[in-house]
Design brief:
The protein is of the alpha/beta class. The protein has helices spanning 34-40, 80-86, 130-147, 165-176, 197-210, 219-226, 232-242, 245-266, 278-291, 317-327, 345-360, 364-379, 413-420; strands spanning 13-17, 23-27, 48-52, 55-57, 70-74, 105-114, 121-129, 155-160, 184-191, 213-217, 271-273, 300-303, 306-309, 385-387, 394-396. The protein folds into 2 domains: 13-86, Roll (Ubiquitin-like (UB roll)), CATH 3.10.20.30; 141-420, HUPs (Rossmann fold, 3-Layer(aba) Sandwich), CATH 3.40.50. It contains 13 helices and 15 strands. The chain has a 6-stranded mixed β-sheet with strand order 10-9-8-11-13-12. The relative contact order is 0.10. Residues 1-10 and 401-406 have low confidence and may be disordered.
Length: 425
């Protein structure tokens, strides 16, 4: 988009007027839905009204016709064009500064930082070449671990490693920054039931490379932990087809967490590191706000007799991907998700919200984390943790179970479901 006042009538340009009476023109295609035009230009639907030949039209249903004259009017007095230009979502001459192109540039990290002196935010950005980016991510990781005291001196931790990008990156970062962290040892635990052969191989490979004690949990061991009557894969098939994708991915994650807990306890370990990165935690917080289910964190949480830590909290998925690409591109391969790792619509909604929030408010996750931490520390009721009599995993009943399920305080939600389906002994 370019700021101008010299377009001819019917040139497939639509006039947008902000509350300062400034004029901008945006591109339109014949027969294109106005909702598409607005979305494509990052204009919130609730921020504007659209007039056709002077009359208000429904901007969700109506389409653009070059035969008519259209004006998009802002209904709220904030500087949307300035803000979108600052974020480079619009191409205007507002906030446009000379950009120095650098052939060696690998990544630019952007932030809106609060200025305590004037109460406003300022935009900052830092650009890195590949070598500097690797050093930056490793420093960011180590600082995040130390700042939130995620690892104590001489501690033995379990690393839940799926063999996907996130857990592999966590394995590399723990090793590559160990000189900057308190001394610790690692037992990596991999549940092969839900992983592809390549992911299982990757998990074992980095454990051997870094001297991590490694456990590859077989399906028979998973079945023993949960007392399944049938193979785990068949259990998942039944859950998938009897319920929906949300149950399927939730069941897979609950089984993996329960198994990691079980074998951590076998090894006498009470601290477990999971590969939840920045957007994972943002989506968990957003979902907790929308549905009223507590998420304690965001950096670490007490979970019964365990402490769960999320050392990747300060790093985004994109940054993790770029980090692996820079140091071990052969491990930066991740195929399509398995049929049990495809979430329902709610998962898509929350991740889209998280990614969009990061785009329009760079660095917002850190403020969200700190605000959520303060809120949970001062206002949350302490939760009563229990141990499932079937799988021995930790759970709490702080939210109501489905009214169609019989209430049994001795079983976790997953085992209640599996018992209802007659899948456990």
């Amino acid at each position: 988009m370019k700021k101008t006042v010299d377009y001819k009538k019917n040139s497939n340009k639509i006039l947008l007027k902000d509350r300062l009476d400034r004029k901008f023109y945006i591109e339109a295609k014949p027969n294109e839905l106005f909702s598409s035009i607005l979305n494509r230009n990052h204009i919130p639907l609730d921020a504007v009204i659209v007039r056709r030949n002077g009359e208000v039209i429904d901007d969700w249903l109506m389409r653009y016709s070059p035969k008519d004259n259209y004006i998009i009017e802002m209904v709220r007095a904030y500087h949307l064009p300035d803000f979108l230009s600052l974020l480079r979502l619009w191409d205007t001459n507002i906030y446009q500064q000379p950009i120095k192109a650098d052939d060696q540039a690998y990544y630019t990290r952007r932030h809106f930082l609060h200025d305590s002196q004037n109460g406003d935010y300022k935009s900052t950005q830092s650009t890195f070449n590949k070598q500097d980016f690797v050093a930056y991510i490793e420093n960011l990781f180590a600082d995040g671990v130390k700042r939130e005291t995620l690892i104590d001196e001489n501690e033995h931790i379990s690393l839940a490693i799926s063999g996907g990008r996130d857990s592999l990156a966590l394995g590399y970062l723990l090793n590559n920054t160990k000189e900057s962290l308190p001394s610790f040892s690692v037992t990596s635990i991999h549940v092969s039931t839900f992983s592809k052969e390549k992911e299982t191989s990757f998990a074992a490979e980095i454990a051997q490379k870094f001297g991590y004690s490694h456990r590859n949990i077989s399906d028979s061991e998973v079945r023993n932990v949960f007392n399944f009557k049938i193979p785990t894969y068949e259990v998942m098939e039944k859950v998938k087809y009897d319920y929906n994708k949300a149950y399927s991915i939730g069941t897979a994650h609950a089984i993996m967490r329960g198994v990691v807990e079980y074998y951590s306890k076998v090894n006498g370990i009470n601290k477990i590191a999971f590969g939840l990165m920045c957007e994972d935690i943002v989506t968990s917080i957003l979902k907790s706000k929308f549905i009223g289910s507590p998420f304690l964190g965001p950096f670490k949480r007490k979970w019964g007799e365990f402490e769960l830590i999320y050392p990747l909290w300060s790093i985004t998925k994109k940054e993790l991907t770029l980090y692996l690409e820079a140091i071990v591109p052969e491990h930066n391969t991740q195929g399509s998700p398995t049929q049990f790792d495809r979430g329902a619509l709610d998962r898509d909604i929350y991740y889209l919200l998280a990614d969009t929030l990061t785009t329009i408010f760079p660095g917002s996750a850190y403020q969200l984390f700190k605000g959520h931490q303060k809120e949970t520390e001062y206002h949350n009721i302490s939760l009563d943790y229990k141990q499932c009599e079937n799988c021995q995993s930790t759970f709490n009943d702080s939210y109501k179970v489905d009214s169609n399920m019989h209430v049994d305080d001795s079983l976790c939600d997953l085992c209640k479901l599996l018992e209802k389906m007659n899948l456990i002994k």
